[in-house]
Amino acid sequence: MALPLLNYAPTTQNSRVAGFEVPGDEQPKQYNTEDQYSPVQFDEVIQAAYRQIFFHAFKCDRQTVLESQLRNGQITVRDFIRGLLLSATFRSSFYDKNSNYRFVEQVVQRVLGRDVYGEREKIAWSLAVATQGYEGFIDTLLNSDEYLSNFGYDKVPYQRRRVLPGRALGETPFNIKSPRYDSYYRTILGFPKAVYAGGPGKRFPAQYLSAKAGDPGAYLALARSIGARGQALSASADIDYLSKVPYRKR
Prior knowledge:
Blueprint lengths: L38 H15 L10 H8 L5 H9 L2 H8 L4 H13 L5 H25 L2 H6 L23 H4 L5 H7 L16 H4 L10 H7 L14 H4 L6
């Protein structure tokens, strides 16, 4: 039996404030299939969906069957977003590489177009993942009133009100401030690599102490055995520049 979603208090965010600014180039472009008829327009809708969910989709990550169904009108944009979220690429890239809290934060950002309302919402949705499963959590989020009232069935989700008038900088895009790998899994995967910092009681391994082929230290003894001596350079004040300048003889 699935537990009901815990109550959480929404905090005041830019996405909850009604906008009265005049739309311009800085405002996010909205893509929908309500008035898209040409193949080029459908390509823009599909690319916008990939950017929102995957940020970038390689050729092997594209869902060609879902794209064909969307072009033929068999599914809506909401169904296409659901297919991308349930794909093996999204599952292996986000769900398998993060905890439930981190996974919930990333999905809410991409699907609802806003940040989570604090830790309380993370806990509420993470319990939904634990009780309803991966697919049940996605369906609950796409069936929520917040998603349907903002994006409906034919509009691609986007980061709502990221740029605000009167501010030098807007909100940071989700794909920049929420990387795919959490710090915990970055440590497990071994990056970033630790750098030898030295200090007492620390020594380099033996394989790093021996000179390898091409190491300049291996030719130090040869250079000393030659006994080459450098030639002292004359001072520039001792050079007669006027006698060295060529001139035309009459």
